[in-house]
Structures are given as C-alpha cells and as structure tokens.
C-alpha cells in the first residue's frame, strides 16, 4: 500500500501554534521585552558617550585653539627681548632690530590670515572703518584722508576697524 503524504493545512498549523500555553507566550513576550529594553538602554548610553566625547573635543579645541599662533608669537617676543638687551647706543642698530621684528610679526600674521586695513584714500566703509571725525578737504567727500590706527581682519572678518578721519 502506498502512503499518502499529508500536508498540514493552515488550520492545523494554527492549532499547533495555539497549543502553547498562555504562560509560555507571556514568558516569551517578557523575554523579548527585556531584550528590547536592554537594546534601548545600550543605544541611549552609546549616544550619551558620543555626546560627552564631542563636548570634550570642543572644550579641548577651545582651550588649545591659539596654541600654534601663540608659539609663532613667542619668536617675535624673543626678538623684542633680545633688542632690549642690546647695549649699543647706535640708533640704527635698534631700528634694524625693530624692522626685523616687525617683519617676523607680519610673517606670523600672513601665516594665520590676519590682514591689515590701511584705507588711506579709500571710500569710507562703516563695516571696516570707524570715523573719529570729519574734516573739510578739497578731496572727494566720504573719503578717508587720515588713518589714526590701522585695522585688522582675520579670515576677512574684522577684528578691529581702522580709526580714520573722513573728508566732508
């Protein structure tokens, strides 16, 4: 006699699944819930660690942002100190030393994108210049005719505006 293969009907499969007791289902669901809770806590802790590390990195960046600039300025300071130690009475040697130190400072400024604003003869720009007074002049009105103090920019952002006198 030939055996007939019996394929389980969907109704029979459902019956097999429903043979689990409600207690077994509850324990499975509780285990799955605990696993999900653990996963959420892990993700939350990982996010907190990332946030804390980012804050530490930001604090370090703020604290040491000027380190390279400061090291470059130390060479300029050393040159000024050396100039003060010179006992020669020759004014030209002092002038040469000061010019060399000024060149060092300009080099540091160039390295860190600090640019000088010397607007003599330019149109007055309130974004880059600060007018101290206006003078009668035969030149074009609103033109800078005297620079009292040069201004400076850092990466094209004004650090200090130039103090100027403007023609009326």
How would you sum up this structure, described in words?
The protein is of the alpha+beta class and 168 residues long. The chain has three domains: 20-63; 66-112; 114-168, Head domain of nucleotide exchange factor GrpE (Nucleotide Exchange Factor Grpe, Chain A, domain 2, Roll). Helix content is 54%, strand content 18%. The strands form two sheets. Strands 1-4-5 form a three-stranded antiparallel beta sheet. Strands 2-6-3 form a three-stranded mixed beta sheet, with no helix packed on it. α3 runs antiparallel to α4 (91-111). It is elongated. The termini are far apart. The model has no long low-confidence stretch (mean pLDDT 84).
Total helical segments: 4
* Assigned CATH architecture of the largest domain: Roll
Rg from C-alpha positions? 38 Å
Encode the helix/strand succession as letters: HHHHEEEEEE
- Order the strands across the largest sheet as they lie in space: 1-4-5
- Let me know the largest β-sheet: 3 strands, antiparallel
Catalogue the unreliable spans.
Answer: none
């Amino acid at each position: 006699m030939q055996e007939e293969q019996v394929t389980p009907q969907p109704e029979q499969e459902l019956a097999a699944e429903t043979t689990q007791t409600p207690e077994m289902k509850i324990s499975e669901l509780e285990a799955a819930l605990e696993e999900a809770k653990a996963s959420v806590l892990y993700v939350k802790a990982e996010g907190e660690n990332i946030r804390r590390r980012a804050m530490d990195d930001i604090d370090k960046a703020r604290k040491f942002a000027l380190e390279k600039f400061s090291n470059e300025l130390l060479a300029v300071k050393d040159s000024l100190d050396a100039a003060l130690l010179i006992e020669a009475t020759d004014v030209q040697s002092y002038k040469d030393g000061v010019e060399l130190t000024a060149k060092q400072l300009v080099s540091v400024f160039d390295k860190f994108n600090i640019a000088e604003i010397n607007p003599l003869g330019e149109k007055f720009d309130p974004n880059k210049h600060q007018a101290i007074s206006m003078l009668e002049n035969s030149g074009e009105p609103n033109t800078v005719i005297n620079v009292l103090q040069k201004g400076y920019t850092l990466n094209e952002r004004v650090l200090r505006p130039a103090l100027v006198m403007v023609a009326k």
